[in-house]
């Protein structure tokens, strides 16, 4: 890890204390199923951008997706994250049916992450049983956002997040650290935006350049700055869930576990089946070459060695008694 000076050590200890006081020692394990990599957006940093013709595109069939969700339940996950690229062709009613079957049939909590949609779509998925939604804002600076998203705007992203809050979702947002053109003032604005939105989850990870994108040659985001951001997010959002993101693992070996020392309390483990996991390449290095059963067992063992334990409940936000 990058050099850890006394200031960083103090910040880490403060964040870890706040984490222990407000969300406890449990680490909530979420199973991610990336059910489609079809995306119509042109984001300059993402390997799924529609201009990337090197990626085989896929969308899992409903029964295939449900079988994988059932596998997650078998492995004792309580939450499944259903994630995809931004695809207007994704029929809201079809996804609502999947949500209903996963929540009612399998007893799992569903987090959706399918991008910007109409308010009516978000409402239909909430009625079907979805209670969490992950929509990272990426950067709260409108100018930087515009420079990275040629076919999208900051105002629309913000509006979608506000709709999700209004509808009652536990909302997850988040940003990247080390984006080209990003300043420390912009990172401060990211933290303040998430505080203003009062998010239930804040996902923070380093920028990882992806092949076949306009930003492929840019440097990777700083690990030390990522730890600082996670710690500051814990201090500003004491009751929020903070994940050790996949990008932190890619940036530095066991980075997702290191994030747990800086205030994080969630880990998301990939249950996307082959060959789809190889094709969901938003950035390189994400593939976990280990059996899903072994993966979960190894994480539980590592947590025990860190003095932490895997959560046994659904891991809802602690800000409300019931959801």
Protein described:
It is a single chain. This protein has 323 residues and is of the alpha/beta class. 41% of the residues lie in helices and 15% in strands. The chain is built from 12 helices and 9 strands. It has helices spanning 6-22, 62-74, 92-106, 119-128, 142-148, 154-167, 184-197, 223-236, 246-251, 255-258, 276-279, 292-305; strands at 26-36, 79-84, 109-113, 132-134, 170-177, 201-206, 243-244, 266-270, 309-310. Strands 1, 2, 3, 4, 5, 6, 7, 8 and 9 form a 9-stranded parallel β-sheet that branches. Strand 5 (170-177), helix 7 (184-197) and strand 6 form a beta-alpha-beta unit. Helix 1 crosses helix 8, helix 2 (62-74) runs parallel beside helix 3 and helix 4 (119-128) runs parallel beside helix 6. The radius of gyration is 18 Å and the shape is globular. The protein starts with 5 loop residues before the first helix and ends in a 13-residue tail after the last strand.
């Amino acid at each position: 890890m990058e050099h850890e000076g006394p200031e960083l050590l103090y910040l880490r200890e403060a964040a870890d204390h706040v984490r222990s006081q407000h969300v406890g020692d449990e680490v909530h394990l979420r199973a991610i199923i990336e059910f489609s990599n079809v995306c119509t957006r042109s984001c300059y940093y993402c390997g799924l951008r529609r201009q990337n013709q090197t990626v085989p595109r896929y969308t899992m069939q409903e029964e295939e997706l449900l079988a994988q969700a059932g596998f997650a339940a078998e492995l004792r996950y309580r939450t499944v994250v259903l994630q995809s690229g931004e695809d207007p062709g994704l029929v809201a009613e079809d996804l609502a049916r999947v949500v209903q079957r996963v929540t009612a049939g399998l007893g799992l909590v569903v987090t959706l992450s399918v991008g910007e949609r109409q308010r009516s779509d978000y409402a239909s998925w909430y009625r079907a049983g979805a209670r969490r939604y992950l929509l990272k804002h990426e950067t709260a600076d409108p100018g930087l956002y515009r420079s990275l998203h040629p076919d999208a705007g900051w105002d629309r992203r913000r509006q979608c997040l506000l709709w999700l809050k209004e509808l009652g979702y536990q909302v997850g947002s988040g940003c990247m650290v080390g984006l080209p053109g990003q300043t420390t003032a912009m990172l401060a604005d990211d933290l303040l935006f998430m505080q203003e939105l009062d998010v239930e989850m804040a996902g923070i990870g380093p920028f990882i350049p992806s092949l076949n994108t306009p930003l492929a040659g840019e440097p990777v985001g700083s690990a030390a700055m990522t730890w600082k951001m996670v710690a500051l997010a814990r201090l500003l959002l004491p009751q929020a869930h903070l994940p050790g993101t996949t990008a932190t693992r890619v940036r530095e070996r066991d980075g997702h576990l290191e994030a747990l020392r800086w205030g994080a309390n969630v880990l998301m483990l990939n249950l996307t089946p082959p060959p789809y996991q190889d094709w969901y390449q938003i950035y390189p290095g994400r593939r976990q070459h280990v059996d899903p059963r072994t993966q979960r067992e190894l994480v539980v063992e590592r947590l025990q060695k860190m003095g932490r334990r895997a959560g046994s409940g659904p891991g809802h936000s602690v800000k409300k008694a019931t959801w």
